[in-house]
């Protein structure tokens, strides 16, 4: 592991496989942490012992709740959201893993993991019967060895965040949405934008409408809605684009005139394409002309549209419309 990072903890080495987003989270006692994990042996084949993705659901632990495998708290608190990292852990940290693994497998199989020690504690029962019920775990129990944990730290559920945490989560979700959009992963990007919108809506309902803080949140929400609309355009969901952009302009009637970021200006640029695809070429033309005028005069507006670009776009819109009429698509 040439890229290994020491965590200043004996017997642990960390290698980042995929960088996370935002700052290092400050997990306080009682915080719920969600992650996927894969446990590997340190043999030549890197034999997989457990994999939460194969089970079909992630793992959850509560920080400071005396989790069976204490080392996982150390590993998780060294990670950023969406980070994927590989941890080599020496035997001093992995001795109880077979017992934890047995419980996880029992739960995945729909069994009660406590059934095996109804009359005695887990360790006493283990020594009495000399088996955990799984051959590979029995082997690990008899001969403890270093293990590799590949962990992916997932975003916390937004409904479970405090006010400050929601505000901190918004730029992270927004940035992740932008990254996914650039990669062409529009469905995933739209989900990130929606999560950020939900965070802001939950904060906004606690503010008095049309006061400074409410308006500040409204501007942030509108920006995210317009990002979301770009995803919808890519997915050819044109009527929903019109619904969202029209709603913004209806609630901010000065949006055509005062088109700054988040106040309807970008919405104007989203509308022409959607209008043309639902067979409204005249409205699309009107939207394009207005967007062009705004882009050339408003500071902070998205990249200006030249008259030549605008005319090319209008010609294309009319060609699409003519094709649909000619071939009976309307």
UniProtKB/TrEMBL annotation:
One of its GO terms (cellular component) is nucleus. PANTHER family: ARYL HYDROCARBON RECEPTOR INTERACTING PROTEIN RELATED (PTHR11242), ARYL-HYDROCARBON-INTERACTING PROTEIN-LIKE 1 (PTHR11242:SF2). Pfam families: PPIase_AIP. Gene3D superfamilies: 3.10.50.40, Tetratricopeptide repeat domain. It comes from Tursiops truncatus. It is found in: Cytoplasm; Nucleus. It comes from the Eukaryota. Residues 260-289 are annotated as: Disordered. Keywords: Cytoplasm, Nucleus, Repeat, TPR repeat. This is Aryl-hydrocarbon-interacting protein-like 1 isoform X2. The gene is AIPL1. The keyword Nucleotide-binding does not apply. Residues 30-154 form the AIP/AIPL N-terminal FKBP-type PPIase domain. GO terms for molecular function: peptidyl-prolyl cis-trans isomerase activity.
């Amino acid at each position: 592991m040439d890229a290994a990072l020491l965590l200043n903890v004996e017997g642990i080495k960390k290698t980042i496989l995929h960088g996370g987003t935002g700052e290092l989270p400050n997990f306080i006692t009682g915080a719920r942490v969600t992650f996927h994990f894969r446990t590997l042996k340190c043999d030549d084949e890197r034999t997989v012992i457990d994999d939460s993705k194969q089970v079909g659901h992630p793992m959850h632990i509560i920080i400071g709740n005396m989790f069976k495998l204490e080392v996982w708290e150390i590993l998780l608190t060294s990670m950023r959201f969406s980070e994927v990292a590989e941890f080599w852990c020496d035997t001093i940290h992995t001795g109880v893993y077979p017992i934890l693994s047995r419980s996880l497998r029992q739960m995945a199989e729909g069994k009660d993991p406590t059934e095996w020690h109804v009359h005695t504690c887990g360790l006493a029962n283990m020594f009495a019967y000399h088996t955990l019920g799984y051959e590979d775990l029995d082997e690990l129990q008899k001969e403890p060895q270093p293990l590799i944990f590949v962990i992916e730290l997932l975003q916390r559920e937004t409904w479970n965040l405090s006010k400050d945490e929601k505000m901190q989560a918004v730029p992270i979700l927004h940035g992740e949405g932008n990254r996914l959009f650039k990669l062409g992963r529009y469905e995933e990007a739209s989900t990130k934008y929606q999560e950020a919108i939900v965070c802001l809506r939950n904060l906004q309902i606690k503010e008095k409408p049309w006061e400074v803080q409410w308006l500040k949140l409204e501007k942030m929400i509108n920006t995210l809605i317009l990002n979301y609309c770009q995803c919808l355009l890519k997915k050819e969901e044109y009527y929903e684009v019109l619904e969202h952009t029209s709603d913004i302009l209806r609630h901010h009637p000065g949006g055509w005139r005062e088109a700054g970021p988040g106040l309807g200006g970008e919405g104007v640029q989203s509308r022409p394409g959607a209008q043309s695809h639902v067979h409204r070429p005249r409205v699309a033309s009107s939207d394009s002309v207005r967007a062009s005028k705004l882009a050339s005069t408003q500071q902070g507006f998205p990249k200006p549209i030249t008259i030549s670009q605008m005319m090319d776009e209008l010609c294309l819109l009319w060609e699409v419309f003519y094709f649909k009429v000619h071939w009976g698509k309307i």
